[in-house]
Here is the input.
Amino acid sequence: MTPDDVSLALFQHAPAGLLAMSTDGVIRSANDTFCDWAGYPRDDVVGRYFPSLLSRGSKLIFSTRFMPLLQTQRALNEMMLTLSTSTGGSREVLVSSVLHDADAEPVIYAAVLDAGVRLKYERDLLDARRTAETAVARVRILQEAAAGLAPATTMAAFGRALRVSAETATDAAFVSVIVAEPDGRLELVSGTRPLAGTVDLPDLLPVQQCLAEGRAVLCRTAADIVAAFPSLAVGFDLEGIEALCIIPVVEDGAVSGAIACWFQRERELDENLLDLLAALATQAAPVLERIHLQRRIEHQSLHDSLTGLPNRLSMQRRLRQLLADAERHGGTVAVLFLDLDGFKTINDTFGHEAGDQVLQQVAGRLLHTLRVGDTPSRFGGDEFVIACDGVDGPTALEVARRIREAVKAPLDGLAQGSIVSASIGISVFTPGGGGRLTAEALVALADEAMLASKRAGKGRDTLVTA
Amino acid sequence: MTTGQSASSDAGVDVLARNGVTVHGDPAAAPIVFAPGYGTSQNMWRLVAPQFAADHRVVRFDHVGSGESDVSAYDRRKYDTLRGYAADLLEILRSLDLHDVVFVGHSVSAMIGALAAIEEPERFAKLIMLGPSPRYLNDEGYVGGFERADVDALLDALEVDHVSWAAQMAPALMQNAERPELAVELAESMARTNTKVAQHFARVTFLSDMRRYLKNISTPTLILQSTDDLIAPLEVGEYLHEHIAGSELVVLSAAGHYAHLSDPAEVERQIRRCL
Here is the structure.
């Protein structure tokens, strides 16, 4: 054989497919090895689009990776592709390629290596790496959620920590953290939600369904949304919502909230993702329970357990705030000190339970009589203190008159038909009167005025100005 | 809740740097914007865009995560939907104060342009879609050309790719580095970021379904579809033509998915024809 023959034989029989093609992928020349692998005679191979010999997935890779990379880098190494053979089989190959454009007509040269075994190994590696990465990402998200949730003492901090974790986990366009308060109200504690302008939160059907059933609600496609929530489909469409998942937060068997993820793309929502969201919800549940408990304790420390009214501590705080505001902005504050007349008799006659009922009824009547800016409190025993913001002497007397009217209506319950009356003392604070007046001093003045009312014959008002 | 509201569309962002925007041609002339397809950069328009510089204001840009864009601006939530990219496009048009734009979008950018034109139709004079597809996956009664497994093959390829990409990058970075081991680490981390971004963009591109929005396109639309485009079969062009009111479909013969490279003169002629 001449050296030229050897060169030709090398080209034809090299243990690699060799190709030359135009820049749009039309095969100009191919060696025997490649034609064998493809399973076509040379005449069928030359003139054919190289990607037409590839599997569908490889066609996608060829068009979106192979060609653009070759155009920008002019060379690429070992891209993994799958040849579709004439017999319907497939052959995994690695393709290295260069763009040769020194001549007028640019050419792509490619070497095709059989790589079935190696690619299987690569795929296994890839799968293992993906599994490991998914696990690492999951742990990181759960750790960050724990770090954010643990110190949360407010609903806002709780909501933010949970929302950020859910956003990282899902890449959702919008995440809403929704809490069902013990009184049944629903609160959006963090994030945004769809249809905010048109549908009230309790009427947002996917959330409603999740909270009612305590199960995840999933819509992976726009068609799923239309099928499950036809009445919301138009609104979701306008906001570009194409998929959603709502995961319940369950606390002691009761649904106490939900993580709602809204996607502007159809999403597969695979098991891994749903497990991760469920794990976040599981982390969130005890934190939500703790915040609810803290709120309950705080409420208890500031409220009277018998009547539900704010207690003495709460009233002192409120008054301090009102006085500070009045001094700063120039306004008046009235304090009404109310003591029941005839309460001891009822207690002695009908028992303490009857007395408790009387206090509860008086509290209810106070709440009905007072205006929005007025704060009632149970100060102790049968004493109530009411703070009225921006109220002057004459108005305070009018408020006191209305209260006395309401209190002296016949009672219900164990002391049915009995009557109590109210002796009221009023102190009014007007700023600029020289010296600072404390909340305690203002209450003491009203207390003295109340005693003056008692001395004057009960069931009346006495006004002093501070 | 509107397009791309979820993330960094705040006022302080330098939109033009973020998207590697380049502007050429006559600043006073009518604007024409060229947008690159999946996995490519504005460089792919190099044979077509300059031809318009004499009589147009020619704008090119890269999507965040590709080409000369600022990859640090890549926000997975924002770009989990093509709407995030459409929001960027509108921001570019606003920063350059462009109106009556002729928008030429290749591949996925055709749909990104369509979303932007649905949102702010007054900015667009014409949509020119080169090799577009509203949905790449086959569906009942619809030929998209691909199955879910094909997209997985692409995602796998992107991941295997990253190893060789890092190996290629590392020596270049090491040459000038005082501590070469850090350069290797850097190459690896850049490769990792690139892979993650490319995979995410691939998911968003190839798993999105834009068919339901086509009826909302009111901008005059020209669809340029190749007979042999592996990414977007001819049926897809016909589907688009049927569902975009008043659209025109032109079939380019044997130009492949990159007609702007393989037959730039014809692409230019088609664009000029409708200006």
